[in-house]
Amino acid sequence: MSTMVLPTAADPAVSVLAAGLAQVPQMDYRAVLPVLVVLGAACVGVLFEAFLPRPRRWLWQVALTVAALLAAGVALYAYLGDAPAQGVKTFAGTLSIDRPALFLWGTLLVLGLGAVLLIADRSVEPGGYFVAQAAIRPGTQQDRAQAAGANMHTEVFPLALFALGGMMVFCAANDLLTMFVALEVLSLPLYLLCGLARRRRLLSQESAVKYFLLGAFASAFFLYGLALLYGYAGSVKLADIAAAAGGTNRSDTLLFAGLGLLAVGLLFKGSVGPFHTWTPDVYQGAPTPVTAFMAACTKVAAFGGLLRVLTVAFKATSWEWRGVLWAVAIISMVIGAVLGLTQRDVKRMIAYSSVAHAGFLLIGAIALTEQGLSGTMFYLLAYGFTTLAAFAVVGLVRTGEGEATHLSQWAGLAKRSPLLAGVFTFLLLSLAGIPLTSGFVGKFVVFSAALADGMAPLVVIALVMSAVAAFFYLRVIVLMYFSEPAADGPTVTVPGVFTAAAITLGVLVTLLLGVWPAFALDWAGSGGFAL
Amino acid sequence: MTTGLVLAADAANAAGAVSTGEAVAFWILGPLAVLGGLGMLFARNAVHSALWLAVTMLSLGVLYMIQQAPFLGFVQIIVYTGAIMMLFLFVLMLVGRDSSDSVVEVLRGQRLAATVLGIGFAVLLVSALARALSLVTPIGLAGPNANGGNVANLGQSIFTDYLFPFELTSALLITAAIGAMVLAYTDRHAPGGKKTQRELVIARFRGEYARPSPLPGPGVFATADSVATPALLPDGSVAPESLSEIIEATSTKRLSEDIAEVSGNVPAPDAHALGGANGTGHRNGSARPGLPASTGTSGSAPGGEEAP
């Protein structure tokens, strides 16, 4: 660094660097290698778009994306053995790569791989789930011409990688500024991906606009909270905020106003409670692989960030804010469970189920104990795989016009395809939290952590709401098995290799975490955040 | 050592003292900013609103500079006022400055509720901030402005402390660029791609489209400069195909004169030539006091392009 700046040392600003007053940040490249691989592969994918002829892009992009995720996974695994137990802070303390961050990275990479397999699938829908040219207006003659073609926007692969990279940074960000940039990096590609569906394009574009507008508002809330917290603590670093909140006679107004606004931004991304309004519309309108990606990975990132903010920066003041988050968790569970009952669309139903699950996750997140942390992270892992596979199954039930998502079309599906109905039943049972599935273990560890932390009333409410939510999962099962199929009902597409792999992955992990959760629980509980 | 010197020099600043020049500038710029904000709220015309907002932003930018934050001040002016506000104005001009928001209350009592809640929120915010900031001892500007000044220190933080978020921003920019291309670019060689002008004409005359000619454009240069103005047919009726589905068109009432003129109801075919002024005067006098009758009734006169 100094050799670089010495020739121009006459400049006062540069001489500062030369004199060594400015510290060049320590960069632990090995620790952040998974993130760098993912983001670097996204950039290479953009170059593919620029230089490869259109017919060859799909193959190259899929190969690159899968290879990048595998390489990032290998890098993560190789680092895991040498990683210090208390974690590493690198890049001048902007990233904190500790045990929870590594666990969440692993979760994100595996879930991202499943989502990418779904995105890459071209067997269920000829040409893939994505539109060939998004700029063509829906419903026009040109649109009909392109719908029949077998092309798709292969930009979705680098976009998905960018989103995934943003999520990984979000989980590890140790100051609010990095967290905000990561929030935008993960959101922007998702807004785009939502609007690129091949079928029902207006619905898809509407969902993208809704998500974009509401997401921009949520980001503004986050930023406002960040500004107030900076005003309070004089720093955006989480540790400095914790230190400032620890023992001063300053007015708490800025602290709690800042925390409140910050929490709105985070809870929005996790589709929690009263900040969930975008969830059903966006989950319904977005292309199903993107919905799966959002439902699984965005939730991991949002709760990973929330856990870190609450644990590292606001643990000392938890007595003041915990009541508010209690209320938010209750509202989220009630909204998800009760409104989920009234849904007539499978994708919307799973969307409301995700709101209810966000409430359960929040219970673990506000426990602020080691048990709560590991329980929440395990729940994220389990829920991600289950919901990924559930959306993949939803994508298989189709009519000539696209996916048949209305519940009435699912009547008697077990008679048409016993295998699909069986798989979906298993996934719904896991979402409901029946024993021998990962959903049960996830709920068990989260609720027991909450009980140990003295939140018994909340756990009782959560159990009641679990029972209510189980009702609408069971209703779908009853519909599939005990109704007569309609004559003009949907057909079940035989999935290609990619979708079959994603569903198999989801179902196997759901089963595995249900019967033998110890290894994942051990890993999730292997250490706390680097303070 | 240098830091110590600067600290001593800025001791007055650190104590929160405000110099006379700064106070004068504040009392000029502060009311201007508030005025701009109010003007933005109460201006009827969307373009005026945008310009009022630009006044507020400019005042804030200058205030930042006076408070020894030159980088922030210039960014405020260049990025917000220069780029974002002007983009906003472009959009307004494209959509048509005539088209304004509907003033019908969709939700009953919405405006009252919004006013009460807005004032309540403002009171809450001001009192909370006042309480929060009254007990705080200002850190002063010594730290941020030491060693080469504010801008140099910002640059230094970007490349040291905040290197990672700064680099991460590039991912954001790449995403934005891809997004713009994905949403806007059509490949004319792909199936369903855009046709060239020539192919389009041939296809039209072969009957592949509903009509051989393009849709009539809006009546932009007839009497107004907005795409919201519908085109008129020879009999004075509005050409329905010239109306955009997504933009609310100028109401027919405001076009009544043009319609009357096109349909030949005006009893003076040679109005702009000699003595037709009294024939159309009262008609124009009520709606367009500013224009002479001759320009008001002549569709071909250059003056007809200007509409109030």
From TrEMBL, chain A:
GO terms for cellular component: endomembrane system; plasma membrane. The gene is nuoN. It comes from Gandjariella thermophila. Residues 173-466 form the NADH:quinone oxidoreductase/Mrp antiporter transmembrane domain. It holds the Pfam family Proton_antipo_M. GO terms for biological process: ATP synthesis coupled electron transport. Keywords: Cell membrane, Membrane, NAD, Quinone, Translocase, Transmembrane, Transmembrane helix, Transport. NDH-1 shuttles electrons from NADH, via FMN and iron-sulfur (Fe-S) centers, to quinones in the respiratory chain. The immediate electron acceptor for the enzyme in this species is believed to be a menaquinone. Couples the redox reaction to proton translocation (for every two electrons transferred, four hydrogen ions are translocated across the cytoplasmic membrane), and thus conserves the redox energy in a proton gradient. The keyword Nucleotide-binding does not apply. HAMAP family: NDH1_NuoN_1 (MF_00445). Belongs to the complex I subunit 2 family. This is NADH-quinone oxidoreductase subunit N.
Automatic annotation (TrEMBL), chain B:
Residues 265-308 are annotated as: Disordered. Keywords: Cell membrane, Membrane, NAD, Quinone, Transmembrane, Transmembrane helix, Ubiquinone. It catalyses: a quinone + NADH + 5 H(+)(in) = a quinol + NAD(+) + 4 H(+)(out). Residues 292-308 have a biased composition (Low complexity). GO terms for molecular function: NADH dehydrogenase (ubiquinone) activity; quinone binding. The chain crosses the membrane at residues 24-43, 50-67, 73-95, 116-142, 162-185. NDH-1 shuttles electrons from NADH, via FMN and iron-sulfur (Fe-S) centers, to quinones in the respiratory chain. Couples the redox reaction to proton translocation (for every two electrons transferred, four hydrogen ions are translocated across the cytoplasmic membrane), and thus conserves the redox energy in a proton gradient. GO terms for cellular component: plasma membrane. InterPro entries: NADH_UbQ/plastoQ_OxRdtase_su6, Nuo/plastoQ_OxRdtase_6_NuoJ. It holds the Pfam family Oxidored_q3. This is NADH-quinone oxidoreductase subunit J. Its main location: membrane. It is a multi-pass membrane protein. Its EC number is 7.1.1.-. Belongs to the complex I subunit 6 family.
